[in-house]
Amino acid sequence: MGSNATHMIDENQLEEYVKLSYLKKAEIQHIWKHFYAMDPDRVSRNYWCYLPVTYLEELLPQLKVNPFVDRLYDVFFPKRDQNGEIYFSFEDMLDICSALSPQCPDKVKAMWAFKIFDFNNDNYIGEDDLLIIIDRLTLKKQLSYSEKKKIIEIILKEVDLGKSGDISSREFVHAITKMPDFTTCFQLKV
Known about the structure:
By secondary structure, the chain is mostly helical. It is elongated. 58% of the residues lie in helices and 4% in strands. The protein contains 12 helices and 3 strands, in the order αααβαααββαααααα. Helix 2 packs across helix 7 (90-99) and helix 8 (106-117) packs across helix 11. It has a 3-stranded antiparallel β-sheet with strand order 1-3-2.
């Protein structure tokens, strides 16, 4: 596409995106339409451009109220400018939409969720990560530290099969895919 970017995606590129994602052609075209509409001048000049994440928040206001929005951005939109402003490309947008689509297999969704919940990026979900998760889910209200510790103890007892004191990605995927509401909660509609 390069400098000839238009309202349409090149058919060969579209086929490639279908192969590399859990999205259908129509969904990819729909996402492209929204991406293009965010900044038609910039996108027309450079199909591979990066746009400020505030553009995406206008399209998807539910992101602003998600307690894990910063982690979603860290995992899916790693591009930052010198001021720390977050940017995303069309392919970044496809990645998040694919991972959070209803067609994405539960185990793949669970692996993305694991990355989001691993706040310190050590490839485990430990006590510190669980404290952050609990605080974000409860908006830091109502639970005492001892109540949080009790919740963590129960979670680790159920999920930490190796009794290592933290949760591996395998343990997390095993546990989370057994939760019936997980796939419907871990979705994003564009």
